[in-house]
Amino acid sequence: MPVSNEVTTTERPDVNAANCPSRSVLEHITSRWGVLVLAALLEDGRRFSELRRLIGGVSEKMLAQTLQTLERDGFVHREAHPVIPPRVDYSLTELGEQAARLVAGLARWSEAHVTDVLTARAGYDDRS
Amino acid sequence: MPVSNEVTTTERPDVNAANCPSRSVLEHITSRWGVLVLAALLEDGRRFSELRRLIGGVSEKMLAQTLQTLERDGFVHREAHPVIPPRVDYSLTELGEQAARLVAGLARWSEAHVTDVLTARAGYDDRS
Asked: For A103-122, what is each residue's pLDDT tens digit?
């Protein structure tokens, strides 16, 4: 079994350790598009095309790659329907829902505090 | 005043909108090193050199850049002490502490669920 798939570890997981697999977990759920995909799936299962429309600026390639990473990590369930035209639905697993609630909290916080941050930036730039 | 420093907005902030400034707030607090720096500062103010030692794999340049971004956003307070050798301390502002609590929650969750994710990855790779 390759090292990257070892499911047991003797040391306590620590995201500050560059080689600890928990850092890759954190990086996947906080990735540029991972955050937005998880938050978008929190309310409902969604089709690929819906996610693509909802999340402004994401390319088809990046969205597919992000969903695949999240599926491999056990956060996202992918269901391909054998219809014409083909339809693929994505939903959160139980594990993914836990992660999604945390990242959605960050997304909502960012929206709620954007004015504070923009004010801070203007002050910083005035002083520089 | 440049558009990026506008502190008022007529529309409701939405991280799914590519041009909404709330997306940049979210991206800064969830950046690769931003997450780890915020979480590291949550317990205590720290010197640059301490942060560099604590956060495995961060380069001096990336740490400096991350701290500057977080300072400009109003999350981090920087205090340079006029001593020899020079010493610079970083601490969280009140706003930064709010963000840090949320990202530290994600870091702790990632550590707690690393085995679940590694198990999911092994299963995915076996099926592929």
From this structure: 999 999 999 999 999 999 99
